[in-house]
């Protein structure tokens, strides 16, 4: 349910309502609007009488939230959320592009890629240090050493770091290096991980499960939001269908559908959704045209030698070309590319 406070309700009145909610064993999430403060109430609200909070001072009315995902819904939170990670903003007017290799493979590889994507106007650097590989016999990532290299790349370029965490026990370690915690498709319904990532307080980039409906996706986001962490970026990364011509099928519908259901920013990952660099630019353009707030793209200086996902990685030159095209597409849909972060230090390589 949501409790709509009167225009001009005092802080004390808002706090009194929040305490009364919490005393019933429910959780109160205040949302400060331009006019009204709205308090989202989540938990077992079905048994409450309809007038439970309405006679309290400062309360205008209360309404049920019809969607199962309460905190993610536009009903409760009609204004879109902008997630900020260092100098990057996702969900505002500007389009944000997160780019980098699938995996951190070496210092040279990562720093070279970081500088290339930064020069091309990317807003954040991606790179996996802990990799969720389908086979246990393939490269599993560099672990903490990879995180250290990512932190060095941030020092050099000023780009915030997006990197995956796969286990609740590793959230603290990964969060101590990362600006954004990526939760991968295979872990979209790992509820312990969703909670731990939420509790870290770091922005979370949540990828859609490869066989998850949009409702399940939003309910997964709800787990993060229910910890009090509002900084969730939703990422459509392709779903499994009968089609075998591409690794996954980009559900482009997901972009406008999610935008109609939730205030959270929505980005697309055309690298994983196509699995083939030949199609990445076309699907990237389509995603921005469909209303996505950004993209996450795999870029590698030498895709043929990549230790993971080389076949879907763009070379830096093609990434530069794509960024130019995206600028034009963004303008066509009344958006613009977000300004690129300033470089903070002199490059070391
Ligand atoms: C990745 O980003 O490299 C990755 C493994 O993504 P996904 O979880 O979407 O497969
Ligand atoms: Mn990958």
Keywords:
18% strand; 8-stranded parallel beta barrel; 349 residues; TIM Barrel; binds phosphoenolpyruvate; single chain; 4-stranded antiparallel β-sheet; binds manganese (II) ion; alpha/beta
Structure, explained:
With 349 residues, the protein is α/β, with parallel strands linked by helices. It is built from 10 helices and 15 strands. The chain folds into 2 domains: 2-63, Alpha-Beta Plaits (2-Layer Sandwich); 83-337, Alpha-Beta Barrel (TIM Barrel), CATH 3.20.20. Helix content is 32%, strand content 18%. α6 links the parallel β11 and β12. The longest helix is centred in the last third of the chain and has 17 residues, at 316-332. It is elongated, with a radius of gyration of 21 Å. The protein binds phosphoenolpyruvate (PEP) and manganese (II) ion. Manganese (II) ion binds next to loops.
């Amino acid at each position: 349910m949501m409790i709509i406070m009167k225009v001009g309700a005092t802080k004390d009145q808002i706090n009194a309502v929040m305490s009364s909610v919490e005393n019933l064993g429910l959780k109160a999430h205040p949302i400060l609007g331009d006019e009204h403060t709205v308090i989202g109430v989540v938990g077992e609200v079905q048994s409450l009488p309809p007038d439970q909070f309405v006679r309290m001072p400062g309360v205008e009315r209360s309404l049920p939230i019809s969607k199962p995902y309460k905190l993610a819904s536009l009903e409760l939170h009609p204004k879109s959320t902008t997630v900020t990670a260092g100098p990057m903003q996702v969900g505002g007017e500007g389009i944000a592009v997160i780019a980098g290799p699938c995996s951190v493979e070496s210092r040279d590889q990562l720093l070279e890629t970081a500088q290339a994507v930064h020069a091309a106007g990317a807003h954040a650097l991606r790179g996996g240090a802990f990799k969720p590989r389908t086979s246990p016999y393939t490269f599993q990532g560099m672990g903490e050493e990879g995180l250290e290299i990512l932190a060095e790349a941030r020092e050099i370029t000023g780009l915030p770091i997006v990197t995956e965490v796969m286990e609740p026990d590793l959230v603290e370690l990964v969060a101590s290096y990362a600006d954004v915690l990526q939760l991968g498709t295979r872990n979209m319904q790992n509820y312990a991980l969703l909670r731990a990532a939420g509790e870290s307080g770091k922005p979370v980039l949540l990828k859609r499960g490869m066989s998850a409906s949009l409702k399940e996706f939003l309910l997964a986001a709800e787990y993060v939001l229910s910890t009090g962490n509002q900084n969730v970026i939703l990422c459509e990364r392709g779903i499994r269908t009968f089609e075998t011509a591409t690794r996954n099928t980009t559900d482009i519908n997901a972009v406008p559908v999610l935008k109609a259901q939730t205030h959270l920013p929505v980005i697309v990952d055309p690298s994983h959704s196509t699995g083939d660099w030949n199609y990445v630019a076309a699907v990237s353009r389509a995603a921005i045209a469909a209303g996505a707030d950004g993209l996450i793209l795999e870029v590698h200086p030498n895709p043929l030698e990549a230790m993971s996902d080389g076949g879907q990685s763009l070379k830096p030159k093609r990434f530069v070309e794509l960024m130019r095209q995206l600028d034009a597409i963004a303008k066509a849909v009344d958006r613009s590319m977000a300004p690129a972060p300033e470089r903070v230090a002199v490059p070391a390589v």
